[in-house]
Every structure is written in structure tokens, then in C-alpha cells.
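Sequence only, no structure available. Ideas?
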Amino acid sequence: MTVGAGGGGLGGHPACGRAASKSNHVLVGGPVRRDRPAIHHRGRDIGHGTPSRPLGAVVSVAATIAGLEEHGRRLSPVVSSSTMRLLPGPGRSLLAGALLLAAAGAGAQTLQIAPFAGYQFGGSVLSPVLEREYSFKTGLAWGGTLDVGTGGSWRMELLYSRQETKLRDSAGTPPGFDVNVERYLFGIQEETGEGSVHYFGTLLVGATRFVPASGVGDGDTRFTAGVGLGVKSFFSRNVGLRLEVRGFYTVVEKGRDIFCTSGECLFRYSGSGIWQGDATGGLIFGF
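Reply:
I predicted one. C-alpha cells follow.
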């Protein structure tokens, strides 16, 4: 049996050719072979032999959901198998996905709190009465930082520190003048490093307040900028040690009197700025 050319069909007869073209048989001069049956989905023909892309996407999504459910059961021993069975299919999938997201974010610390203590040094003012320079005595400073992650290696930082010190002349003549130095700063921090040891740098702006400890005279609040460098070493995922050194520059008005009472002023700024620094350490708690 032969296949006719053109519109001839079988044996060159047009009717036979039309009949052959409507059938699912291919006549090749040998045994008859049927084409693979069409795949139907919801009453629609979607191709022969292999699923179409939409059906393949459905299969892929189903496999992903099954994988999420399996990982969810492994990640959460507190969610029992009986509890998972009570949930409908979509509920199980959502719960498993939530557990995966929680596990993925478990290593990231959004919030860090670090109380610290250390030594603060530097800075001086002038006594207009005695015409001597008085320096802030190096001494204990304490405070804390609050860091909030903003994405990537960056954090926003709030800092408070306090030093209870004395103003003493260059000769160290007692008793000196008791004064408290308080800082209220905020800024940005960039952190880098791998494993348990991270290095960081901080830029800060805010205010420094000089307050007479005895209550004699008014305090003075001044704009301050600061920079810090330090290291964080974690003992565990959420607890570690933070060590840091900082430098501060407080902007003042040269010749301005401070700590005044009843028209009498005890000290005066001798320059346009006061340089100070501290070196601190303390525990850090991550959440």
C-alpha cells in the first residue's frame, strides 16, 4: 500500500486521501502505528505526550509544598503530628513555611543591648577668677548602648554615658570642683566579620551636658559629635563581650562663662571645642 502524493490520498483517490488525513493512523507502507494519545486536563486538550507548562508549574508547586511540610515537621518538635493532621492542607503548608522563615531568621540579631563601664579622659576649661586652666579628671564612666539592625551590616545606635568627675588645676590642687558629664547620642554603626568575632565602627551626634554636682550654678548643654571603633566577641548566639574606644568633640563658644550663680561664674570655655575620649567594655545581649 502506498501513500499518494499531493491531494491524491490512497491510490491517488481524493476521497481516500481525505479519509486518511482525518484518522489517527499514519500509513508509511508498513505496519500501522498509532500516535500517542492526547492529554486532557479539565476537558481541554493540552498537548500530546508531555504536560504543558501550566501543568508543570502545578506539579512543581505541589512538590514545593510537600517539601515545606516535611521541613516544618523536622524543624518544630513542639508541633505534634496530630496537630498537623488537624489543620487543613493549606494551613499545614502555611505553618511549615512560617517555621522555615523563623529558622532562617533565627541567626540574625535585630536588637543589641550593651551596658558598659570604663574610663573617660580629656577636656579642660579656664577659671576666670584664678586665671588657671582646669582639666576634667580621668575617671570612671558608665552607660549603655541600644543598637537596632536596619539591614545588611548596618545598625542604628543610641548611647547614654555618665561620668562623675572633678575639675582640677594642672597642679592637682585639692579639692577641685565636682561636675557630672552626661552624653545623649545617636548614630549609625557598620559591622563586619565572620563567626563569633565582629568588628565595627560608629558615627554619633547628639549632646553633652556639663552639670555641677553640688547644684551650684547652672549646667550647660552643647552639641557633640563622636566616632567609635570596637570589637564584639560572642560566647554564644546571643551573649558576648563588647570592647570599644570613642572620641568626642563638643562644640563650645570661646570665652563663654559657665556654672554661674548670682552673677558670679566659676569657669569659662577657653577654646571653640572640647576633645574627650573613653575606653569601655561590657556584656552585649542580642535578640
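The domain at 111-286 is CATH 2.40.160.20 (Porin).
Hope that gets you unstuck.
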